Amino acid sequence: QVVGAGTTVLYVLFAGFLIPRESIPPWFIWVHYISPLKYTYEALMLNEFDGLTFSSTRTPGTSLAGLDALALNFNITPSSPTSYRWGVFGILVGFFMLYTALSITCLC
Questions:
Q1: Is 103 in a helix, a strand, or coil?
Q2: In the Cβ-directed half-sphere of 96, how many Cα atoms lie within 13 Å?
């Protein structure tokens, strides 16, 4: 239980929400890429920001597309939002199968 709690804390901490990817130390960047929460977080943000347009309050008449806001603030730059969503879904299914196999192996 302690290992699971520690792993979950690392996943949450390095998913990109609490600590942005640019601020993660180089020796911990691997935790960012193996965190299932990173992919879930990116997919949710992409789903929310795709198709939105934000107007600027500082400069009237200018606007920013939702995907551009993601690229600017969170460094998420998918070339195709739909294929990226399905790619993330595939990665999450892979994580599910991996963790299920590990659980079965540990229980046997």
A1: helix
A2: 8
Nearest of 6, 5, 87 to residue 40 by alpha carbon: 87
Q: How confident is the model over 52-95, as pLDDT tens digits?
A: 888 877 777 888 888 888 888 777 777 777 788 888 889 999 99
- The continuous run of DSSP H or E covering 20 comes out as none
The amino acid present at 104, given as its one-letter code, is: I
Q: Please give the distance of CA 58 from its chain centroid, rounded to a whole number.
A: 29
DSSP element (H, E) containing 94: helix 81-107
Q: Which residues contact 70 (CB under 8 A, 6 or more apart)?
A: 45, 46, 49, 76, 77
